[in-house]
Amino acid sequence: MAKKVLVISSSLRNNSNSETLAKQAAKGAQDAGHDVEFISLKDKTLNFCKGCLACQKTMKCVIKDDASEICEKVGNSDVLIFANPIYYYELCGQLKTLLDRCNPLYPSDYKFREVYLITASAEDGDEVYQTAKGGMQGWVDCFEKAKLVKVLSGGGLSDPADAESNQAYLQAAYELGKNV
Length: 180
Ligand SMILES: Cc1cc2nc3c(=O)[nH]c(=O)nc-3n(C[C@H](O)[C@H](O)[C@H](O)COP(=O)(O)O)c2cc1C
Hints:
- This protein is α/β, with parallel strands linked by helices.
- The protein has a single domain, classed as Flavodoxin domain (Rossmann fold, 3-Layer(aba) Sandwich), CATH 3.40.50.360.
- The chain has helices at about 15-30, 55-60, 65-75, 95-100, 130-140, 165-180; strands spanning about 5-10, 35-40, 80-85, 115-120, 145-155.
- Strands 2-1-3-4-5 form a 5-stranded parallel sheet, with helices on both faces.
- The protein binds flavin mononucleotide (FMN).
- Flavin mononucleotide binds near residues 18, 86 and 157.
């Protein structure tokens, strides 16, 4: 059955490696017949969560910026694929900010059940993305009906466009999307 798949790319740089992999995942999901939407945070305005918790009663954020529309799309998707450049062994600030700003979803009847994370980092190795994976896992654990299905880590991707010639990662990202 076709699923509603939302791909969110969080790197702000041109020729982003994580975005290249996210686009491959989107293509895989599209080819599998799913209904796919791709969002880049590059052209979005996202302010920090103020922690007022008004959203827990109203289901809406008091801050008027692009996070509200993205949050609504997150809540209405079956599958979420987040792409993240590793910054200091963590989720990048802009993705963390978006996750915080999705707090209106916490008490809601959110639809998403499966979450995927794609990372890009200069260094290779399992330890490079563990904290970012933990951060995403922590967010997903707060949504009891959802699970973090898979993390695809693109290690050894340093300069812009490095991912474009890495056939193994391109294929792995495509397969990730194809199998959501
Ligand atoms: C602020 C900052 C912190 C970074 N920290 C790490 C790091 O801890 N480990 C690592 O392997 N690469 C690190 N990098 C390199 C990026 O993860 C790497 O360039 C990656 O390809 C960026 O993904 P993007 O092209 O999607 O933006 C860092 C880059 C920046 C700008």
